[in-house]
Amino acid sequence: MAAPRKYPDELRERAVRMVRDIKTVPGGSAKGACRRVGDQLGINPETLRGWVNQAEIDDGDRPGVSTDHAARLAELERENRGLRRANAILKSASAFFAAELDRPQR
User: Fold this and answer.
1) Alpha helix (H) ranges present in the chain?
2) Tens-place pLDDT, residues 58-79
3) 27's torsion region: left (phi>0), alpha (psi -120 to 50) or beta?
4) Cβ–Cβ under 8 Å, residues 33 and 22
């Protein structure tokens, strides 16, 4: 189970939009934009920078693993772990019953 988010999605989207708007202004830097918007909204600038980077990846403006792909990968890894665990249980059960069948009957 994932931890609850500290910031609501609406605030995240608004902050990312504000940083992008400031960056498009001539002379606007990403670091300065994150610091300014972070101070206005009470968000750590490094947290905000990470949100902006991930939004750029999700939009295809920057190379990297998108949020959707990362979620799908995590889901598949969870499913894989469950299947491996079930397989191990079935192997040990089959070995147990095979040993029972090999014992001489009285």
Assistant:
1) 9-24, 30-41, 45-59, 67-102
2) 998 899 999 999 999 999 999 9
3) left
4) yes
Alpha-carbon distance of 43 to 7, in angstroms, equals: 9
Is residue 34 within 8 Å of residue 23, measured between CB atoms?
no
Going by the DSSP 8-state scheme, the letter that residue 105 receives in this structure is P
Lowest mean pLDDT among 43-52, 57-66, 95-104: 95-104
Query: Which residues have C-beta within 8 Å of that of residue 57, sequence separation ≥ 6?
Result: 63, 64, 65, 66, 67
Q: Does residue 38 surpass a pLDDT of 90?
A: yes
Residues 60 and 70 sit within 8 Å (Cβ to Cβ): no
